[in-house]
Amino acid sequence: MSDWPSQLPGLDINQALTQLGGKKNLYLRLMGMFMDGHAQDAEHIRAAANNQDWTSVYEINHALKGVTGNIAATDLYQLCVALDAKLKQENHDVAEELDQMPGAMAQLLESVETVKNLPAE
Question: Which terms does the UniProt entry file under GO BP (predicted)?
Fold first, then answer.
């Protein structure tokens, strides 16, 4: 792990690698899966909220919360946790979380690109 940074903006690499038993190849695969499957989630959550489709907001956010926890995407994960808590209470006053998600996602995507270029061994 010494040839990798311990953290990047929005990403706790040490925490993630600890969770994954130090398996860098697995982490790199998870980064690719994140980019392929979740890079647009903040936009999808916003669109569903604008349509007051709270079931979709919950489902997309719940999936995003899980994957951001697995890759230790700390900032976005905390927003997902906060949004999840409000939705479970049927509290739809989520403008603050929705406003912060695009920036947290953009920061995370930049960090993911950096990680994808790190040596796997």
Answer: phosphorelay signal transduction system
